[in-house]
Amino acid sequence: xxxxxxxxxxxxxxxxxxxxxxxxxxxxxxxxxxxxxxxxxxxxxxxxxxxxxxxxxxxxxxxxxxxxxxxxxxxxxxxxxxxxxxxxxxxxxxxxxxxxxxxxxxxxxxxxxxxxxxxxxxxxxxxxxxxxxxxxxxxxxxxxxxxxxxxxxxxxxxxxxxxxxxxxxxxxxxxxxxxxxxxxxxx
Length: 187
Description:
By secondary structure, this protein is α+β, with helices and mostly antiparallel strands. The chain is built from 5 helices and 10 strands.
């Protein structure tokens, strides 16, 4: 069956959301872990600086509630700012990843594929590649998107609109379930 892949930002983002739902726990952990570590370090720095300053009974130009504070207090505040900035930057980056990937693909955004019972052939402008079904380790099958994994985070995305008819898309999903027994059915 012939498949005309026409990637756009919405299709890529929809595929990435499906991917992250099942295999994105490391990304979610990283999104939260870095800010939590930065805030923990900053709270430690701020606490030790306030404790040290109040114990010594200092007062000076760096007053905070009448307590003279050193560089660690301000470094702690800076770490909190970095933690918040990192969190919002990563959220922005994850939401715009489709646009970034689309730009990086360049001329490979539109290409044709031939799917048979034994292989998938990708026909790019500059080359043609054929992969047997054994090259795919896993799959996620939803109502309108299929992700085929060659490795843990490397996948090919197939959207229903790439196929000539819904019958072809259903046949494609059946072929996947025959060749990839551990395919995840997403509803």
